[in-house]
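Exercise 3.2. Students should predict the tertiary structure of the chain below and write it as structure tokens, then compare their answer with the key that follows.

Predict this chain's 3D structure.
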Amino acid sequence: MRMRKAFARVLALIAATALSACASPKAPPPNAGDCTTIRVWSNGWHVNLAMRAEHFGADHPVRALFPDARHFLVGWGERGFYMAEDASFWQGVAAALPPGPAVMQVIAHDAPVEETIWRGSEVLTVAISERGADNLAASIGRYIRTDENGAPIVLSQGRIANESAFVAARGNFHLFNMCNHWAAKRLQTAGVPVSARISFTAPGLMKAVRRKTSAECSDLANISEDPSY
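Answer key:
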């Protein structure tokens, strides 16, 4: 009985992986005729993704939250720790041990969030293809839980009054699926050649992004071909 249950779980995981792959065709690398940019934000321990409104479809859950915003900054994490006003070190340890529910914070503004109302310690511009941007937006959307009407489930206001929200998110947070793993996996859907497996820390992920990508569409000739990631 136990073996049958374990086998069923493996089959379910394989099926889920296959469905995910089908939902997001592999993104080609950017080139001179097919290029747009996103930004990767870090405060030294947590990585968020910054995208323009044009990257999201009009019916995307992110746009439903803030339909008039032109710029978004999105992050994913453990619900209790991420939403806590002043989370302690031990809360962080506790969040990483048993799998726990996730939450997503969406911050919106009429100017780049990462330059105006929510500055990070490091922000990298990353060139990706249009398919990469579509994949990334779709992947973010799949992680937002919605109600029976298709609207995002808002749990509370986010860190910025009137311009942010914490929304219920899919996925479980644990030691091997933390916020930076999540960000790395989303970047992979966009065609960014980083490894989610080794992205435990924000500095490690940011270093990989710096090494493996071009900062601007005009710099495409400088993209590394190093296959080590």
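Discussion points: Residues 1-23, 87-96, 223-229 have pLDDT under 50 and may be disordered. The longest helix spans residues 2-23.
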